[in-house]
Amino acid sequence: MKISWNYRVFCEDNGDYVIREVIYAEDGSIVSCTKDAVEPMGGTMEELASDIEAFKQALTLPVLTLADIPTKEVKKEKLHSKSKNVSHKELLDKLGFSHTSASS
């Protein structure tokens, strides 16, 4: 699977504009983005200049919001469904001990 990315402008809930990295699937659909805004950087002046040009390119693309980014539905399974752990009661029952405390 070939993925790609670029910088995109986002309009935040408070109306501010920031730039994030956006990741695309092979078919060009948006897969994800960075949680936080990014800033230009480079190990050399030339790399910094190149990164700034990529930021400028983001200004020519449609503005996104976080609502445009798909969220993964995480299937929450009960932990004990895949776990070999047993509850305290199950352990006592398995060992043949009564779970109820003895009264004096």
| CA-based shape | elongated
Order of helices and strands: EEEHHH
How confident is the prediction overall: mean pLDDT?
A: 83
Q: Classify the beta-strand content into a percent band.
A: 15-25%
Number of helices: 3
- The CA-CA distance between the termini, in Å, is 68 Å
Reported for the largest beta sheet, the result is:
3 strands, antiparallel
User: What's the Cα radius of gyration?
Assistant: 26 Å
Judged by helices, strands and strand pairing, the structural class is alpha+beta
Number of strands: 3
Write out the strand line-up for the largest beta sheet, numbering strands in chain order.
1-2-3
What fraction, in percent, of the residue positions are helical? 25-40%
**In terms of per-residue confidence, which ranges show pLDDT below 50 for 5 or more consecutive residues?**
74-81
Quick tags:
single chain; 104 residues; alpha+beta; three-stranded antiparallel sheet; 3 strands; 25% helix; elongated
What this model shows, in words?
By secondary structure, the chain is α+β, with helices and mostly antiparallel strands. The chain has a domain at 4-68. The protein has three helices and three strands; from the N terminus they run βββααα. Strands 1-2-3 form a three-stranded antiparallel beta sheet. It starts with a strand and ends in a 9-residue tail after the last helix. The model is unreliable at 74-81 (pLDDT under 50).
